[in-house]
């Protein structure tokens, strides 16, 4: 991949592929294995020891799955946009939705070869963009309208600067004035105390977190969003795995873990 951050797409992919192989998968992304080529396996080899973080990656995916599925059950024809889609396969797994995946040309080309849009059980379109050189607003302009849109931004925001986050949100407000955002937000304290070693590996691949803060939701609230829900990734991952004891400990006695990494749903209308 030309873009270093794209290597994180291989990491999150490998987490889901490994999860799907388990007797009790948290996410169950059975399509992930299609993309596990030599490069993916090389990336995965550097992360296999981070078992809790890897499980949380599958858990966060499932949390977003459930939130989006709840909306699609009410409005099966709703539009879903996946920004920085990576190897996302939700258009193949969830019930309903008219899907648009947006990412770098190299990823889109690989996805088209290994998981064609014709195999998706829902309408799916892929849009390639060089994020560093092309205008997101210009790329999304043909899709501009006022209908309610669901925008998934998973595993992306922590790699952007505050200015880049604000710019992205401004584009979304312009193109999709009535939309919901589903994203993962990590507190600086959580990253520093629980994710330092994992982040060191990511940084060695050229994908460093930027402008971390203990109130990451503030950027979206200041941009005019309303928080609709917030779900603890570590806690929910333990619950999905049926680990009641550890889940109880995290819920009652480990607020920094419980609250440090969450899936947020924001509304803008």
Characteristics of this structure?
single chain, about 270 residues, Rossmann fold, seven-stranded mixed sheet, globular
* Number of helices, counting only DSSP H or I runs of 4 residues or more: 13
Tally of individual domains: 1
The count of β-strands is 7
Report how far apart the termini are.
36 Å
From the 3D structure, determine the CATH topology: Rossmann fold
Instruction: Output the strand order for the largest sheet.
Output: 3-2-1-4-5-7-6
Give the biggest sheet. 7 strands, mixed
Globally, the shape reads globular
How much strand content do the residues show?
A: 15-25%
Radius of gyration, in Å, reads 17 Å
User: Which structural class do the helices and strands define?
Assistant: alpha/beta
User: Are there runs of 5+ residues with pLDDT below 50, and where?
Assistant: none
* The level-1 CATH class: Alpha Beta
Annotated CATH homologous superfamily: Vaccinia Virus protein VP39
Architecture (CATH level 2) name: 3-Layer(aba) Sandwich
Order of helices and strands: HHHEHEHEHEHEHHHEHHHE
Question: Which whole number gives the mean pLDDT?
Answer: 95
Pfam families: LCM
GO molecular function: methyltransferase activity
Keywords: Methyltransferase, Transferase
Protein name: Class I SAM-dependent methyltransferase
């Amino acid at each position: 991949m030309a873009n270093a951050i794209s290597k994180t797409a291989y990491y999150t992919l490998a987490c889901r592929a490994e999860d799907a192989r388990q007797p009790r998968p948290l996410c169950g992304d059975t399509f992930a294995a299609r993309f596990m080529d030599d490069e993916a396996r090389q990336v995965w080899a550097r992360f296999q020891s981070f078992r809790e973080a890897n499980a949380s990656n599958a858990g966060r995916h499932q949390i977003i799955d459930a939130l989006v599925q709840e909306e699609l059950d009410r409005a099966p024809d709703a539009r879903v946009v996946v920004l920085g889609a990576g190897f996302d396969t939700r258009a193949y797994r969830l019930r309903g939705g008219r899907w648009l995946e947006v990412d770098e040309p190299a990823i889109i080309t690989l996805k088209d070869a290994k998981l064609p849009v014709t195999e998706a059980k829902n309408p799916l379109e892929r849009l390639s963009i060089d994020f560093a050189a092309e205008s997101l607003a210009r790329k999304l302009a043909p899709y501009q309208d006022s209908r309610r849109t669901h925008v998934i931004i998973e595993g992306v925001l922590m790699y952007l600067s505050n200015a880049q986050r604000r710019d992205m949100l401004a584009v979304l407000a312009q193109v999709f004035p009535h939309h919901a955002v589903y994203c993962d937000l990590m507190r600086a304290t959580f990253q520093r105390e629980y994710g330092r070693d994992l982040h060191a590996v990511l940084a060695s691949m050229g994908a460093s977190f930027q402008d971390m803060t203990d109130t990451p939701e503030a950027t979206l609230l200041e941009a005019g969003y309303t928080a609709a829900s917030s779900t603890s990734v570590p806690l929910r991952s333990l619950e999905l795995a049926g680990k009641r004891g550890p889940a109880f400990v995290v819920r009652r006695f480990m607020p920094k873990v419980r609250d440090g990494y969450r899936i947020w749903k924001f509304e803008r209308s």
